[in-house]
């Protein structure tokens, strides 16, 4: 019995040491991965990287990690032209089946899913914010975007008729969708009225409807779905063969 007791104590001690070594190793790896991702994506701040699964060391020996979560507080994505950027808030991605090279210089995830938010003030940059003529004597421009409820965006438009600004802005509920995996499209469900003036639908939609390209997300992930929320549009992203580094 004494020998068995000693053996159990030794097993517990070695087990504890293994757990400690495993956690130290995973913390070091998370820091290294965060630094590499920051350099690869040219980020201004170090992202959050969390390696899931236990034990970590046996995953390393196998050359593949089950699950890595990545969080980037502020990411500037390409907006469709090389000079412009759009800010993505709280980009979070769950990377599955991450395989890495022998020298750890590159890592690729089999699949990735995640979420992000684009604030309304960022999306507003794409809308017609300068007064534009929609009919003789009538100009209009978008002055605000907000949550319209039920996944819709409320688009607020100011109009001037014959030199007189309408006393109250008009608004319209719009649907927001993803097209081609890299563009957010806002399209009015109906048409606002500007002081009773009849205006061709195409001219009105030139003001109310717009789209924003969001390209160059980390690792090549793409937009999947989008809906309006209180603080902006919430986007679901996904991808395959997503490059984490290298």
UniProtKB/TrEMBL annotation:
It comes from Streptomyces swartbergensis. This is DUF2993 domain-containing protein. InterPro entries: DUF2993 (IPR021373).
